[in-house]
Amino acid sequence: MKTFCGRANPTTGAMEWLEEDENYDYHQEIARSRYADMLHDKDRNVKYYQGIRAAVNRVKERGEKAIVLDIGTGTGLLSMMAASAGADFCYAVEVFKPMANAAVKIVEKNGFRDKIKVINKHSTEVTVGPDGDMQCRANILVTELFDTELIGEGALPTYEHAHKYLVQEGCEAVPHRATVYVQLVESKRMWSWNKLFPVHVEAEDGEKIIVSPSEMEDCPGVPSVCDIQLNQMPSSDFTILSDVVTMFSVDFSKPVRSASTSYRVQLEPVKSGKAQIVLSWWDIDMDPSGMINCTMAPYWVKSTSAFQWRDHWMQCVYFLPNEEPVLQGEKVYLTACRDEYSVWYKLQKARGEEENKAAVRVESPVCRCQAHLLWNRPRFGQLNDQNRTCQYIKSLTKVLKTDSVCLCISDGSLLPVLAHYLGAKQVQYFLQYATFFFLKFFKANNLEDKIKIIEARPELLTSSNLEDNKISVLVGEPFFTTSLLPWHNLYFWYARTAVTSHLTSNVTVLPQSASLHMMIVEFQDLWRIRSPCGTCEGFDVQTMDDMIKNSLNFRESKEAEPHPLWEYPCKSLSDPQEVLTFDFRKTVPEYSLSTEGSVNLLRKGKSHGAVLWMEYHLAADISVNTGLMQISNEKGNCEWNPHCKQAVYFFSSVIESETLLDLPSAVTYAINFNTKTGEIAMDFKL
Ligand code: SAH
């Protein structure tokens, strides 16, 4: 079946109707899924296997039959482990149909057809009884339903239901227990993902400070978890204010309650400072004794954690609603509130606020100031990046005159305010939709009557919107919230083209141009998420590999995907190369822009793929780079812009070279920017 879906093209801005195959969504889901990453997670797999063996043995020692319920079986892996460990029968429940189908094939291929029954249902739909999906209740409950926040994928309601209806009282559970840990820290870097710091501007008539509206001050932000690879956060970027403490734990072998609740712990700060952030992670004990433990603890808590890389489970950063000064040794209370799916934190000073636990209101955070809806966390970080702001200030100073009529096209941008302070005194326009927030923002800076917000798409801009002025300076960062891949911000070029009739003949466009850059890299770990597994703990899971490959080839083949590479170490195997340029001083051409060439491989290593990013040339000699900041040593380790996602194109076969002699000398590429569709197609060959 085909359906039509309307969307605004992220690059060209044009409304388009896409014919979607009904299979499109699930192919996307499989192609970009975390199944490969989980199957590559050796530490996880080994410990599950140990835990499952131990649980089966305990049941057998009691002289009982081992009946396993595996909720969310995926490939069937944990059920196959149980069957191999001697379980008498396994019910493998999987809600996602393509995965359930794959599990049937994998189970059969591995010879467990008689021992494992795959049930394609959500666990809450599963029936028990002579005519039910399950003949009887299970006495071993195996699951892997956890996300970085532990409960975000609905583990609690699933367990609650399973204990009520699907498993016996006193059942064994693998994992047996999960424990959530927290640590209080101060970190300017992480705090800059949540609050807008004052922006200092040296203007001709003195220093100006751009401030945020007061509503932003104690706004709790958005409830979505901030999950990151905390192991990539250098210790110099945060100050530890408390020891690691246990916040709460869940025993999965007993009835679980999913209803909202809160937990409170007392902390004694080990250092004075500003409490801003709660870092959190969890571990799971696969057995009751806690001997088989799988932990997400970061490197400063567990030194070997860097070697246990995984992307499906990371660590959480929670922002306190306000920063709180704390004193070394002076106790404070930290409260974790949770509903069925998410967790959030509050800090209270011990003295004077000794409210009892019941009085703590369990109310999910909602952004009141609107800024957290407009700016996501990397965007906050970008806006707070003083160096970046400095580049815009320098270039605006160069191009603005007192009689400049300036139009800014970018989402949620501070450029109009900078432009106002830096000379464009007369009048300024800002194409923008988040009008409500910006009215407050301009008011907080006494700029209500200085900057005019125009709520129109660029192609619908009229002379009366501009009060019959012509634009002499057109500016953009460019940044658009609809951009996923780096080149989607070329929307600025399309918008510039659409407003051409409103520009003066000698208009200045800032940035004047952009360039696309490319480099071949070897990833330390990220390659795992797109690499076939073959076998996992002795089980043949190639069916899964084939399925992922098939989905990758489904329409969206030859596509790059966005990743924030500061979280994923890699080394450069080639020099960075500029591959395409886009001249914003001219309109978007009718023809496609394409290039072919080759890059020399300079280092030995595995060529996992190419990384691509954009650089914006604001004015002569002033650029903003959204990708590679530097190659930090002779080994080729890369440093990436921490506020942007870069595009990663994974090669379908990995080019490996052990020595410089057997180095393939170069990788050839062909890259094409289709100006009609705004898409970039690429092809790489050895
Ligand atoms: N057990 C596999 C896969 C884990 S991924 C492994 O360890 O490798 C979790 C899987 O659980 C996903 O495939 C998801 O679709 C499924 N799932 C999550 N909640 C479920 C529920 N309540 N009932 C059935 N399937 C569920």
TrEMBL record:
GO CC terms of this entry? cytoplasm; nucleus
Q: Which GO terms describe its biological process?
A: cell differentiation; methylation
Q: Answer yes or no on keyword Plastid.
A: no
Residue stretches making up the Protein arginine N-methyltransferase domain: 176-347, 512-681
> Gene3D superfamilies this protein is in?
Hnrnp arginine n-methyltransferase1 (2.70.160.11), Vaccinia Virus protein VP39 (3.40.50.150)
What molecular functions are annotated in GO for this chain?
histone methyltransferase activity; protein-arginine omega-N monomethyltransferase activity
The identity of this protein, by name, is Protein arginine N-methyltransferase 7
